[in-house]
Automatic annotation (TrEMBL):
Residues 45-208 form the Suppressor of fused-like domain. It comes from Allosphingosinicella deserti. One of its GO terms (molecular function) is transaminase activity. InterPro entries: SUFU-like_domain, SUFU_N, Suppressor_of_fused, Suppressor_of_fused_bac. This is Aminotransferase. GO terms for cellular component: cytoplasm. Keywords: Aminotransferase, Transferase.
Length: 348
């Protein structure tokens, strides 16, 4: 990654020009710092994003406002959807800084390139309200409690119409691990709304502690989760399998094997999903799936390779109270399932 000249776009780059024009309206009196790869991705370079622009801000707190170029179609239209440009968004990021700082942090640009590699490699796109664990600190350049991220509409950049379609500006927001847990149990957008009073413009401050250490914030978040339930309907797990055993008398019984780490998440989410009429899907790396659904009576069924577990509110509560995040076999009376929990740990 290196600095590039102010005329960073190609001669025919209507998408790039549209983004630059939108930012010029926000920062009419400031020339941004521009950065880009030595060899662009479309010419065989390793970095998916063609560039970044960064503006220095002193208000409401000192920070850099960094914007990507490359998730959307910067040059000619290539995708099939005429309404959406490329992946449909660009990312923004607002790391706090020292007022005297003259250059944006390189770790922030590298981090955004890594997010781009994930999108380009998988085809999975980010949306307003998404959260994402990043399996470590947001930067290894210094100590920080930020080890997860969320995505929200940039508070100062509305969606943009370009010749290639619409482009949204999604801001990356650094979270601590317990804040990520709170996002899972509630709704990310609601959580960030609570945080805005303490994180103006949703800046990412490497030096901050979890906002949930504030009793008022924690109480507001817990009350919101209990009132609204959770928007998380999908959990991924490395360890998941199930099998059916026939009995001489009566219907079949089932054995489900799951890791202890996922049990902890499962027992927290079930009371925030099923009583609100929402299902919860647990998916394993090898394709195994268990679908928990609210029901008027308890029922176990097999459908398209998945195990559907329909639970009454009382049984859902009993299951959440019975399962423990430690190795052992667990069962709820009346439910023909043995839950075999195996110890799992988070890798380094």
């Amino acid at each position: 990654m290196e600095g590039v000249d102010e005329n960073a776009s190609d001669a025919a780059s209507p998408g790039w020009d549209a983004i630059t024009g939108a930012l010029a309206g926000l920062y009419p009196d400031q020339e941004p710092r521009h950065f880009g790869p030595v060899i662009r991705y479309r010419l065989g370079g390793p970095d998916p994003l063609d560039g970044f622009s960064a503006w220095k801000r002193l208000e409401p707190v000192p920070h850099w406002h960094i914007v990507t170029y490359g998730f959307s179609e910067l040059y000619e239209k290539e995708s099939d959807d005429p309404e959406v440009s490329g992946f449909g968004f660009e990312l923004t990021f607002r790391p706090t800084c020292d007022p005297a700082e003259e250059e944006p942090p390189m770790w922030a640009l590298d981090f955004l390139q890594n997010l781009a590699r994930y999108v380009f490699d998988t085809g999975n796109v980010f949306k307003d309200g998404d959260w994402m664990p990043i399996n470590g600190p947001i930067t290894r350049d210094r100590e920080t409690a930020l080890r997860s991220i969320a995505f929200a509409e940039d508070p100062e950049l509305p969606a943009l119409s370009t010749p290639s379609g619409t482009v949204a500006f999604l801001q990356v927001v650094g979270l601590t691990e317990d804040e990520e847990g709170a996002a899972k149990l509630w709704k990310t957008a609601r959580l960030l709304d609570v945080f805005r009073a303490r994180l103006p413009l949703l800046v990412s401050d490497l030096d901050r502690d979890s906002l949930l250490t504030d009793p008022d914030v924690r109480r507001t978040v817990e009350e919101g989760s209990a009132r609204d339930g959770s928007s998380t309907g999908y959990l991924l797990t490395e360890l998941l399998s199930w099998k059916r055993r026939r009995r001489l008398l009566g219907g079949p019984v089932y054995e489900v094997m799951v890791g202890s780490q996922q049990v902890e998440e499962l027992t927290r989410l079930l009371p925030r999903r099923l009583p609100f009429g929402r299902s919860l899907r647990l998916a394993g790396d090898s394709g195994e799936q268990i679908l928990f659904e609210p029901g008027e009576q308890d029922e176990i069924a097999e459908a398209e390779g998945a195990l559907a577990v329909r639970l009454t509110p009382a049984t859902a509560t009993a299951l959440s109270a019975t399962l423990l995040a430690r190795a052992g076999d667990y069962a709820v009376p009346g439910l023909p399932v043995t839950w075999r929990v195996r110890q799992t740990t988070i890798g380094p």
